[in-house]
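Researcher: Before we compare anything, I want clean individual predictions. No alignment, no superposition, just each chain on its own. First chain goes here; please echo the sequence and then give the structure tokens.
Model: Echoing the first chain and its structure:
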Amino acid sequence: MPDSTLPNKRRRSAKPRIERAALKLFVHDGFDAATTREIANEAGVSEGALYRHYKGKDELALSLFMTIHNRLGVMLRDALASEGTIEQRIYRAVEAYCQLADEDWLLFSFHLVSLNRYLPNDTRRDDDPVSILEKIVAAMMEAGDVPKSDPAVVVSMCLGVVMQTGLSKIYNRISGPMSDHVDILSKGVLAVLMQK
């Protein structure tokens, strides 16, 4: 007698393969160049299997992007809201960012190269990473922990320190894990915050 759970197991195992195949194609070929047929072929599933999990390429890409984007917001908030000196909190935030990058470089790469596609739809949400950082930096300024300035500009500059390093890694200008660079990245972010 056939195992009645087999189709469900196949469906569940197809989704991670579809997501990995999509990430690979999105990062290496570009979102616009990748088709649902190519994603399915790369995943070793039928195109119909992809549509059982996602309405199409757009929904798949947005889901992948938001998964890491939302996680990043929580990690940064937790690192910066914890006890310690400004230096310790910045170090923990940069360390969390780098560890997330190293945990799944392909997904992280997709996040970095897709920011301009998805962030315009995600601005000024209370729980988006940039809004979280702006609130924390504004509170640091209000408390006198860092010099007063425009929190949005300062956060943009701080993010530039780590994000540009990530982009350089995508373009093979930097080798090794991002975590190898936590010390220097933390010092760069701190220099921006302290406006030195």
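Researcher: Okay. Second chain, same rules.
Model: Second chain and its structure:
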Amino acid sequence: MTAVASRGGGLRGAVAAEWTKAWTVRSTWWSLLAGAGLMGLGAVQFSIFATNANGNDDPSDDKGVVAVGEIAVAAVDVVQFALIGLAMLLITAEYSGGAIRTALQWVPRRGVLLLAKTAVAAVIGGAAGVLLAVLGSAVATPMLGRWAGFEASGWFGDVLAIGCYLSLMSVFALGLGTLLRSAAGTLIAIFLIVMLVPALLQASDITAVERIADYLPGIAGAAFMRGESEAYEPVLGLLIVAAWAAAAVVAGYAVLRRRDA
């Protein structure tokens, strides 16, 4: 009995428990459904923009053939918030409902608990990101018509880039949720960091201030997914997002370790 118990415990057991919990709450399914809806609508919208630009009378506005993967990338700005909401609820819902006490009774080592939640958030975010990217590409293909471009290597790169970015943003959301413990507070903070603050910085017309925006997770992630940035190589964008995710988890762990549940 002892051997069986030891094999089922530890990090592996904690991950299995968190994985089961994630798929047995309605918020996970609603978040994924919302992500699919947003990706579908976003792909339609950006495809229409592309075809309209190609069909107008201004030759300088002719974008030509558009890679279907780029349409999915363009939709990520909005789609990401569905997966961010899913990831943060893995921890904030337990704080709001008091289930965090039960979770810590079953997994008293708080670092192990947070690591298990982080692993689950990363896997769900990454896998969902890949599937949503495929969905966006599938919707964009008929919408673009003769302007649809598909090259296997480029498309796989776009799909994997979206999966990597959304995996890291899910980890970022989980870490920030652990730090703030509030779903509303976490969502507001992420919206400010990812959307509002970068927009304000980029609108300043001050080069030094605009450069700060390049190192925020939303802008860095977009540079990575789109494969272009004036400030740095696109791969550095992925590392910047990873640094934000790691910092959020470390900060969340510091609070989780010190405070009572």
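Researcher: What stands out in the second chain?
Model: Residues 2-258 form one domain. Additionally, The longest strand covers residues 66-67.
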